[in-house]
Design goal:
two-stranded antiparallel sheet, two-stranded antiparallel ribbon
Length: 584
């Protein structure tokens, strides 16, 4: 109906509109002049001229083209169906469409020779910067926390034909979700007097803020969360190429494609060569391919060509693509927009209309719904509301989640409904319905007074619980008494002398155990040794002393050698035998 057409008209006003129309004079004589005479001069050219608009005075196209403000006014009142008035014959839809097309062609002709106003450079605001970086690298999360996003949708409904009767949404603006680790955003941008944060005169760049941008660009690519699991272009940009490929040519190709997306249009060859030489120089310094490309990426993020939106001097279609993308998606143009801008198709009215329809149906349209209605209605002011606690004592019942967090979701959901179901814009002013949480329903429809309490009923219900509580207290009291007695007896136990303790029974048990262990253990004979033997090696000496080790005759002599008792040898210890060739 009206909602999407209203947005489309806004897009066209903020963009460059190219219309291939018939010559202005022919358009006026063949279409506009007869229509004015039939439908308009009765009120705007007779004895009484309404609205200070006298169409009867305009006799030719030259006079009409000299009044661009009048043409603009006619377009506005006809587009919203204010004219013709209700008591006059209405235009058919075909007539209205033809009339608007003719008037827009006249307005274009009337302003063709006008000196264009200076268009100031426009820095990306914080919300746009986050989205542009996220889309550029195809990140699966935000770059940093965004308190600007006042409502988070947990029910998916933006591409549905109708809003659900019940939706799940949250407001995390007071405690937004984190982005990449170790990345901190620059401060929130100043708002203009009308509440919007995309005014060029507000988006300044001080030396301190420029330094913040430089640090931010480095921290993004060096974040622990910036890796192959979170970055969608990792394999095509950061991953090292296969061995045997032309490193210089491959690196340049990657950088050229990346810079075209980052800078939102064609990039001069000299610029691509400079970035490529920088990356190759880092690789020659033995920096890895991935880290070198991270350096290139951070350099691009801190470039004025990324930080600023500026009109293209040689290809206005790229400016149109950028204006469309930042208005509807709060981000850089995607590949399709850049392709249409590059081949010149985007400036064709039919292609432009289809492109706008595609962008409105894209999931990224959520960003438009996150920014425009919030700033248009200045809903952030609700968060600063501090009502009288005596009159609204439940407003700050939970200081971390005040009632305002639920209140601001109500108009945002209404705007979503008007957008999704393409409802008339007038429903934003006088809606027939609204989404309200259970808390808001109670708050809006009742005084939230505490219910009356039946004290007698509560006392009766609590009697069994009170009996159990008293019994438990008695058990605790008894256990505490036993514990106190034991603690008090500890000093007297410690003062007893060791000899006062009768250990006879324990000693007898221990001695009996030792006797049993000796009886069950293997009895070893005393240690004996003999040697040294006059032999060249140990094996020869061993064979001389005894052959069967388990049957040794300790009384037998071997020449002058005989077995001797080794009194200093003890089981369980290592002893060195005397002599080089001895037996033990």
């Amino acid at each position: 109906m009206f909602a999407r057409r209203f947005i489309q008209q806004g897009v066209l006003l903020l963009s460059f509109l190219y219309i291939l129309a018939a010559p202005a004079a022919d358009e006026f004589e063949l279409v506009l002049k007869p229509l004015f005479a039939k439908n308009c001069v009765k009120c705007h050219g007779g004895e009484k001229v309404k609205g200070k608009v006298n169409l009867k005075e305009i006799a030719n196209a030259k006079q009409f083209l000299a009044k661009p403000e009048l043409i603009k006014q006619l377009i506005e009142v006809i587009d919203v169906a204010d004219m013709p008035p209700e008591d006059e014959p209405r235009l058919t839809e075909a007539q209205r469409v033809d009339l608007l097309a003719a008037l827009k062609a006249q307005l274009l002709a009337a302003t063709a020779t006008a000196k264009s106003a200076h268009i100031p450079l426009r820095r990306l605001n914080r919300f746009q910067y986050n989205n542009a970086v996220r889309d550029l690298f195809q990140l699966n999360r935000d770059v940093f926390a965004l308190p600007e996003k006042l409502m988070t949708r947990q029910t998916i409904y933006l591409n549905a034909p109708k809003m659900p009767d019940r939706v799940n949404v949250r407001s995390l603006t007071l405690n937004p979700a984190d982005g990449l680790r170790e990345v901190k955003a620059f401060p929130k941008d100043l708002r203009a007097s009308h509440g919007f944060d995309n005014q060029a005169n507000q988006l300044t760049l001080s030396p301190l803020l420029l330094d913040a941008f430089l640090r931010l660009s480095v921290s993004i690519v060096e974040s622990p969360d910036f890796n192959e699991n979170t970055v969608g272009i990792w394999n095509t940009f950061f991953k090292p190429p296969a061995e045997g490929t032309d490193l210089s040519a491959g690196t340049r190709k990657r950088i050229a494609a990346f810079l075209k997306r980052a800078f939102r249009g064609p990039v001069e060859a000299a610029t691509v060569d400079r970035y490529t030489a920088y990356a190759l120089a880092k690789m020659k310094q033995e920096m890895s391919f991935t880290d070198s490309m991270k350096k290139v990426a951070s350099a691009a993020l801190s470039s004025p060509m990324f930080l600023y939106r500026y009109p293209a001097t040689d290809a206005k279609a790229y400016t149109l693509a950028s204006n469309l993308s930042f208005f509807l998606w709060a981000s850089t143009p995607d590949a399709d927009l850049l392709r249409l801008a590059g081949n010149g198709d985007l400036i064709e009215p039919e292609v432009l209309d289809k492109t706008i329809d595609r962008m409105l149906a894209d999931p990224k349209i959520e960003r438009f719904l996150d920014t425009f209605p919030v700033q248009w209605m200045q809903l952030e002011n609700i968060l600063a509301a501090t009502p009288d606690p005596k009159k609204h004592r439940l407003f700050m019942l939970d200081k971390n989640h005040p009632a305002s967090l639920q209140m601001l979701c109500e108009p945002l959901l209404l705007f979503d409904a008007v957008f999704v179901e393409d409802r008339p814009i007038a429903e934003l002013i006088k809606p027939a319905f609204s989404y309200q949480s259970d808390f808001l329903k109670d708050w809006y429809t009742s005084d939230l007074k505490a219910p009356k309490v039946d004290e007698k009923k509560i006392i009766e219900e609590n009697k069994p619980i009170e009996a159990e509580r008293k019994a438990a207290q008695e058990e605790i009291k008894s256990a505490q008494a036993h514990l106190d007695d034991f603690v008090n007896s500890i000093p007297s136990i410690m003062e007893k002398k060791a000899e006062q303790i009768d250990l006879a029974e324990g000693q007898a048990q221990w001695e009996a155990a030792q006797q049993k262990a000796l009886a069950d253990s293997v009895a070893l004979s005393p240690w004996h040794r003999i040697g040294p033997f006059g032999a060249g090696n140990f094996d020869e000496a061993h064979s001389k002393a005894f052959i069967i080790e388990t049957d040794v005759d300790l009384k037998k002599t071997y020449g002058k050698l005989k077995w001797e008792l080794a009194e200093n040898f003890v089981d369980g210890k290592v002893h060195n035998l005397s002599g080089g060739n001895s037996a033990t």
